């Protein structure tokens, strides 16, 4: 009986004991749980309902504040208001086109043979044409590479700064910066020269396969003004790998250049091999034979060079720099003055000067044969300076002096000057193109 009573006592613990009361106070009641859940749900619903309303109210207040501030600023500074509304007529331009072709690792320079560097000029387009102008503060300019497709046309000049920046081309992943060198400089007095810049990668990997160079303003003075200056953009061009430079054509070619530097003649091509087999290795060799006998050089080149190809090659060759040297061919009774490509400048026969424009048909044939003979013996000709006068010409050798003792009494100057592809005749005192001495592609 005692054991059963103890078990019964243990199954009904005394509710008055302290531990039991603590346990009951810690355990939440069902009602309290429901109450807390309802509170949380209420707050969430209220927040969701108020959030859009609060956002709208805050946005309206911010816009009203900005509008009031903007109105006060424009009222105080009408000049700033005008600048913000009116488009700028100022723009940057490059002073000339680029020298092409352009190769990686080679300096990008201006075209032409005047030796001037590429420049960027500030111009005003408000009137007719473009007028160089200046600003009272320095302008910081940066060079960038653009896609060749921008702008869409060479006549398009109106674009936004955002459109310009959108077409800037960056280097390929893992490559060096696409354009290196002096890319940032300061313009003063409305002009600045571009320093040494070069490309590190070719242009074959972009869709247009061409680049342009752009010049944009990054800062004017100490940001005293926000006037818009339109960016400068070059013409589109191809950038080739440096390894192709050894095959580059020369513009213009030099007399001593190898003949494959001419258009349509490859370095290791058939035309070059055919010409070389006949001793025509340089541009000068090519032009001399083309002057004396066009048919012969066309025969050497063969039917593979069409008339159109020949015109391109010959036109390129004729842009060659002639230099200041002339060549003298002397015989028992004649003296011929020839250009470096075997064109006749003047003939003296039996002591009489024959300006080429005054030659009759018979005289032309006779002198043509003399010139061909001089061509065949080119290595034996005397090289003379471009400035040659008659006495100096006619006193070359004792036989000429003894045979024609009165020739020094003539008053006509022999050759007054020698310039690229031109001479000055004694009678007309005017410049005459060498091509005037030949009535057809052959010599005379």
From TrEMBL:
Residues covered by the Calmodulin binding protein central domain: 255-320
InterPro entries given in the database record: Calmod_bind_C (IPR046829), Calmod_bind_M (IPR046830), Calmodulin_bind_N (IPR046831), CBP60 (IPR012416)
Cellular localization per UniProt: Nucleus
Coiled-coil regions listed in the entry: none
Cellular component GO terms held in the UniProt record: nucleus
Lineage: superkingdom: Eukaryota
Domain Calmodulin binding protein-like N-terminal: 90-242
Pfam families membership: Calmod_bind_C, Calmod_bind_M, Calmodulin_bind
Family in the record: Belongs to the plant ACBP60 protein family.
Gene Ontology molecular functions: DNA binding
Natural source organism: Solanum stoloniferum
Lineage summary: Eukaryota, Viridiplantae, Streptophyta, Embryophyta, Tracheophyta
Annotated Calmodulin binding protein C-terminal domain residues: 325-384
Protein biosynthesis listed as a keyword: no
The protein's name in its UniProt record: Calmodulin-binding protein
Keyword terms, alphabetized: Activator, DNA-binding, Nucleus, Transcription, Transcription regulation
């Amino acid at each position: 009986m005692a054991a059963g009573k103890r078990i019964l006592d243990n199954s009904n613990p005394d509710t008055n004991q302290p531990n039991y009361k603590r346990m009951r106070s810690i355990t939440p009641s069902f009602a309290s749980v429901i109450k807390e859940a309802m509170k949380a749900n209420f707050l969430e619903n209220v927040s969701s309902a108020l959030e859009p309303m609060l956002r709208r109210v805050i946005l309206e207040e911010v816009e009203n504040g900005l509008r009031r501030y903007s109105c006060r600023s424009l009222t105080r500074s009408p000049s700033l208001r005008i600048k913000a509304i009116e488009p700028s007529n100022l723009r940057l331009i490059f002073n000339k086109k680029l020298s092409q072709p352009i190769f990686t690792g080679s300096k990008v320079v201006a075209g032409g043979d005047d030796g001037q560097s590429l420049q960027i000029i500030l111009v005003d387009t408000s009137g007719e044409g473009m007028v160089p102008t200046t600003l009272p503060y320095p302008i910081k300019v940066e060079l960038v590479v653009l896609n060749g497709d921008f702008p869409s046309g060479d006549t398009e000049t109106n674009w936004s700064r955002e459109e310009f920046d959108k077409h800037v081309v960056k280097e390929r992943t893992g490559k060096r910066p696409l354009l290196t060198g002096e890319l940032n400089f300061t313009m003063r007095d409305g002009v600045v020269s571009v320093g040494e810049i070069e490309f590190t990668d070719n242009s074959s990997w972009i869709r247009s396969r061409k680049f342009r160079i752009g010049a944009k303003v990054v800062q004017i003075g100490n940001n005293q003004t926000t006037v818009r200056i339109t960016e400068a953009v070059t013409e589109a061009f191809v950038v080739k790998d440096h390894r192709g430079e050894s095959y580059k054509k020369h513009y213009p070619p030099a007399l001593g250049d190898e003949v494959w530097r001419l258009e349509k003649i490859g370095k290791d091509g058939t035309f070059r091999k055919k010409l070389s087999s006949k001793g025509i290795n340089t541009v000068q060799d090519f032009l001399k034979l083309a002057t004396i006998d066009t048919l012969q050089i066309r025969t050497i080149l063969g039917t593979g060079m069409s008339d159109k190809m020949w015109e391109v090659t010959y036109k390129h060759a004729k842009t060659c720099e002639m230099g200041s040297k002339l060549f003298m061919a002397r015989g028992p009774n004649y003296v011929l003055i020839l250009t470096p490509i075997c064109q006749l400048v003047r003939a003296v026969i039996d002591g009489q000067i024959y300006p080429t424009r005054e030659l009759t048909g018979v005289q032309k044939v006779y002198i043509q044969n003399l010139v061909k003979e001089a061509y065949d013996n080119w290595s034996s000709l005397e090289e003379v300076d471009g400035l040659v006068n008659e006495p100096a010409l006619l006193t070359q050798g004792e036989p000429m002096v003894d045979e024609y003792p009165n020739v020094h009494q003539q008053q006509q100057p022999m050759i007054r000057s020698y310039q690229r592809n031109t001479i000055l005749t004694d009678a007309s005192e005017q410049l005459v193109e060498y091509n005037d001495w030949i009535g057809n592609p052959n010599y005379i």
